[in-house]
Design brief:
The structure is a homodimer. Chain A has helices at about 1-5, 15-25, 25-35, 40-55, 60-70, 90-105, 120-130, 145-155, 180-190, 205-220, 240-250, 265-275, 310-320, and strands at about 75-80, 110-115, 135-140, 160, 175, 195-200, 230-235, 260, 285-290, 305, 335-340, 345. Chain A has about 350 residues and is an alpha/beta fold. In chain A, strands 2-1-3-4-5-11 form a six-stranded parallel sheet. In chain A, strands 7-6-8-9-10-12 form a six-stranded mixed sheet, sandwiched between helices. In chain A, strand 1 (about 75-80), helix 6 (about 90-105) and strand 2 (about 110-115) form a beta-alpha-beta unit. In chain A, helix 3 crosses helix 4 and helix 11 packs across helix 12 (about 265-275). In chain A, about 50% of the residues are buried. The model of chain A is unreliable at about 1-5 and about 85-90 (pLDDT under 50). At the A-B interface, helix 5, helix 6, strand 2, helix 7 and helix 11 of A face helix 5, helix 6, strand 2, helix 7 and helix 11 of B. The first copy, chain A, binds a DNA duplex (30 and 30 nucleotides) through helix 2, helix 3 and helix 5.
Chain lengths: ~350, ~350
DNA sequence: CATAGTACCGTAAACGTTTACGGTGATTGA
DNA sequence: TCAATCACCGTAAACGTTTACGGTACTATG
């Protein structure tokens, strides 16, 4: 009888089979109990859960994935060795933390998919998708034209992007309110009498650079001013980039009286570069940038926009889950697309005022 | 006949079966061809590879893992939202890049396993292992006593750690040569006449702090000096930590004349803090630290130890593979354990000399 | 020609799950 | 009492691979 076979605990049993045998019930019931199915006696479920804990049983992910066609993994794609990922400090770690708090509720795991600098990002993505690695993806470093979007849309892989793109396949995205930041900053600086205002942008083709520059230009023109192409500084989005900008800026024969920083960490390098030349933010030049954990230690204190990275991560996760059939009902009114407005924290770095 | 069945390309075929049908051969042969098995005609193999490329076929990872009991994935465990992972900047991204270059040769993929700050790292590791997620692991943020080691050793999961620990289960590790750095730095400073030398250590229980402090003490005692407990500053391993140290240091009634920095990025914060008080490295205090991409922009230039992060990643990957049966023959003489010596790059920050 | 050997290929089992389906015994309703 | 309903559980198929095994046709050898 099957009964006997199960009662005698054979040696080489593994996985769910071993657990079922230990409890002397069928593997089907064990599976149902563990997965919270309704058609199982609560008494039985309790026994199963206890035995699972006792024997340290955790379902094998490969078996489960193979059967369900789902992995319970969400991938966050990043590129190693590049400066793109180097938001200077722990930017992504904080965002991850927010994402995780949402995913934990659904037993989803977040992993960072690390695309080597030696491999083409598009190829890498193709491989990841074809292997059925993740149920959904989060993309950052959004390019102005991003072929990854079309690829994923064609395969019907749920994904969300941190950053807009001209390539629009209807996917959800979150982005920072670069228009708002440009508008507020320009208005503020013009009100203080500034006419020669410099702006920065990332050196590569990420979309945010275009958005920020465009809006800065519009805001200036609304005041009857123009954006001098000579005052657009592009750099890597890290401290070194900020330093380079300071050097370039100081070398101009006709210096700008104010500068807008689009990235977070460049403020640190900028300060250092200016400091070396005895140029003091807030006294000799007005600076408006973005707050970061490190910028708290800048002196004079930075006037800049403050972002809650963790909340951004949470919103990112919810926007993604809202598009995944299995989870969408949990987030009926999640913002599929949203510009994330940051608050301006006033410091001393833009105190420099010009006579009218 | 089977022949007919295959010739007519049925609709719902997926995966390897579809490919086999398209080529009118068996799935077994397709699999062998793709996996480089010898018992397949080279002509056939060529056809298979071409068809695979054409149809964009990539083996399903779940099916493959289930059968082979192997995932072709190596996990790098990190903790999100914590300061531990915040080596300030792109430290890990550069290390990853080195790891990847080695893994690419073996068709292994590296992913970062992100342990939420809300979950216990030991629990997280348990889950990852039980699910059979990765074939091997890389651990960082090595604690002085690290229970993760014993757990992995018991399960016979190959792993390598970045950093030594008192918990020794025979696993391979790489570590920076903190003894060497302490010894060289102390000797150098003492030779310049310094007697009151401060040292830093990370605020938490990572092992490197103990090693560094111990060796600093020994080196001082060899010169007939002592390490003043009041001159041991602990901080988070980032810029903010460096700033705090500067503040604490300046508040001492009897200031140290020199300071040794164990972490990379704290130099930035330290400089800023000292600068605010008009204290200049190299003129008013001697500073020896560690080089990083950002430290190139410090002024006066930092005297510090320089590490090739990418090479470290390469060594880390090789040390791990050397312990994995499937790959060990590729790395017969890989260093299973190694302290990674860094070169001292001389700058101006330790120019401050005391009269004899 | 008979035999052995070789090169290549097809068949089918196995990996660990989940889940549709059917079955059993108990309960309910008339 | 009989039928219908219900709660619960066991059975077995299926997911997409890899690989041991056996089979076939061809070649070499005597």
């Amino acid at each position: 009888m099957g009964r006997e076979k199960r009662t005698v605990e054979a040696a080489g049993m593994t996985g769910i089979r071993r657990l079922a045998q230990h409890l002397d019930i069928s593997i089907g019931t064990v599976s149902r109990a563990l997965n919270g199915r309704p058609d199982v006696n609560e008494e039985t479920r309790k026994r199963v859960l206890e035995a699972a804990a006792e024997l340290g049983y955790v379902p094998n992910q490969s078996g489960r994935s193979l059967r369900q066609g789902t992995t319970n993994i969400i991938g966050f794609m990043m590129q190693t060795g590049t400066e793109i990922t180097g938001q200077g400090d722990t930017f992504f770690m904080s965002v991850f933390d927010g994402v995780q708090t949402v995913f934990a509720r659904h037993h989803l795991d977040l992993v960072a998919l690390l695309c080597s600098s030696e491999e083409d990002p598009d190829d890498y993505l193709r491989r990841v998708v074809a292997r059925g690695f993740a149920d959904g993806l989060i993309l950052s470093a959004t390019q102005r034209h991003d072929p990854r979007f079309e690829f994923l849309a064609k395969r019907k892989i749920p994904f969300v992007t941190l950053g807009r793109s001209l390539t629009d396949v209807g996917q959800p995205w979150l982005d920072l309110d670069f228009e708002g930041m440009a508008q507020i900053s320009i208005d503020r600086l013009v009100a203080k009498g500034h006419r020669r205002i410099a702006v920065t942008r990332p050196h590569d083709d990420v979309n945010l650079g275009y958005i920020f520059i465009d809006q800065s230009r519009k805001a200036l023109e609304a005041h009857g001013l123009t954006l001098d192409p000579d005052l657009i500084f592009s750099s890597t989005p890290n401290e070194a980039g900020g330093y380079q900008i300071a050097r370039q800026l100081l070398a101009k024969k006709e210096r700008p009286t104010a500068i807008l920083l689009v990235n977070e960490t460049i403020a640190l390098g900028l300060y250092r570069g200016l400091n070396e030349a005895g140029v003091k933010p807030g006294r000799d030049i007005a600076v408006i940038g973005r707050q970061s954990p490190q910028s708290h230690f800048l002196s004079p204190s930075l006037t800049g926009f403050k972002l809650s990275r963790r909340d951004l991560g949470i919103a990112l996760a919810e926007a993604l889950l809202a598009t995944m059939p299995a989870f969408s009902h949990f987030y009926p009114d999640a913002n599929r697309r949203k510009v994330w407005t940051e608050d301006l924290v006033e410091g001393e770095s833009d105190a420099f005022t010009l006579p009218a």
